[in-house]
Amino acid sequence: MQHETFHYGTLDEVKEKAQEMNVFLPMSTSTEVLYRPLKIGDHEAENRIAFQPMEGTDGTEDGAPGEMTWRRYERFAKAGPGLIWFEAVATVPEGRASAHQLYLTEKNVDAFKRLTDHMREVCLKENGYVPVIAMQATNSGRYSKPNGYPEPLIAYSCPPLEDVPLPKERILSDDTLKRYEAAFGPTAKLCAQAGFDGMDVKCCHRYLACELLSAYTRPGDYGGCYENRTRFLKNAYRAAAAAVNAPGFFLTSRLNAYDGFPYPYGFGVKEGSLTPDMSEAIRLIGELKQEFNIPMINITMGNPYRNPHVNRPYDHGNYVPEEHPLEGLGRMMQGVSEIQHAYPDLPVLGSAFSYLRQFAPDLAAGMVEGGHCAMAGFGRMAFADPSFVQEVRKQGTMDKRQACVTCGGCAALLRAGKPAGCVIRDREVYKL
């Protein structure tokens, strides 16, 4: 079905459209289940709502949190989600996605520690509890812009992502990949020192670790077979695990279960089609669970630069998708559910709820209530109206006048290297 803009006035209208299209969108009229605690390793989240890692591009030149970074996380902490998944923090300087992406070092670790302490103090004062805080560690790979312009670090030549083929010398050698995977060790040690409860070895949206999952055409130790394509991610975990000796500190990943590109250029896809295939993602999660005792997994899909509708259905953007937004939303929920049912004892954090605006909590509650995920993640909505967490807890509904309208403005700011936030609900601060 062709793309259609959001026009639903009632939850019943959303349900009717989902039924008409035969897409998987389990809804609940009660949001009470979202406010039950959830064990995450040695920690406990007060509720089942997470704020996803939304990069703000507002760090200082040396990688420390800037003034706008502090503003954002103070707002997030005041809102009171059970889990704050802190945004992408670079593991090496050349792997920064912008000149102002956060970069954790021995010189600025105390600045990060002051911020995590402040987040807990604010949430405790406002809500009576502290959030679980996990930091996303990343190497931006082909999307590296450490000096403000593209300086791609690629795993292999990928036609669906390259309008013009990138020079072969941009392809990273096996030795360089070994150095990059090892860099997750020092970052993990600093992450624990900075007061984070855990670290995400980022493996999504076609940044380096994620891109290697689809490196079918790459020769050598990091391409071809499944064992080679997952080598970087597992070795990054091993480096991180060996570097940290902090009680309760956990490792996890925000993981692409499906890239939305055809074989041999996409992960999680059946050969000869764009049909999702969760088998390798499920296998990988099981192996991470067994070797590293991950206490949860965060599932997403797609690439925000080439097919953003796959991971965040939207109304506006630089292209019109061929599919209806509810089709993409249903694909995400189906994939999350399949993974959760494969590992019932491993909490799965789902993504993409924000598209439904004021009805997003109903989908989140339906997914949790039905055992399709353990926690619901909100990204764009956290930019637009972080206060919805307590609003829904008290009233059971979200104010549609404050909800995210999925315009893509926050992503446009990020791509432009400008401080990113909501250009609609926070327009005095963030402007395109």
Describe what is shown at a glance:
The chain is an alpha/beta fold and 432 residues long.
Structure description:
With 432 residues, the protein is an alpha/beta fold. 34% of the residues lie in helices and 12% in strands. The chain contains 14 helices and twelve strands. The strands form two sheets. Strands 3, 4, 5, 6, 7, 8, 9, 10, 11 and 12 form a ten-stranded parallel beta sheet that branches. The protein is globular and about 55 Å long. The relative contact order is 0.15.
Q: What is the H/E string?
A: HEEEHEEHEHHEHHHEEHEHEHEHHH
**What fraction, in percent, of the residue positions are helical?**
25-40%
General form: globular
Radius of gyration: 20 Å
**Biggest sheet architecture:** 10 strands, parallel
Low-confidence stretches: none
Strand content: 5-15%
Number of strands: 12
Put simply, the count of helices is 14
Q: Span from first to last CA?
A: 31 Å
Derived structural class: alpha/beta
| Integer average pLDDT | 97
Please outline the helices and strands:
Layout: H1 11-21, E1 38-40, E2 43-45, E3 49-51, H2 67-79, E4 83-90, E5 102-103, H3 109-127, E6 132-138, H4 174-182, H5 184-193, E7 198-201, H6 208-212, H7 226-229, H8 231-243, E8 250-252, E9 254-258, H9 279-292, E10 297-301, H10 325-342, E11 348-350, H11 360-369, E12 375-378, H12 380-384, H13 388-395, H14 409-415
Parallel strand pairs: 3-4, 3-12, 4-5, 4-6, 6-7, 7-8, 9-10, 10-11, 11-12
Antiparallel strand pairs: 1-2
Helix pairs in contact: 2-3, 4-8, 5-8
Keywords:
432 residues; globular; 12% strand; ten-stranded parallel β-sheet; alpha/beta; two-stranded antiparallel sheet
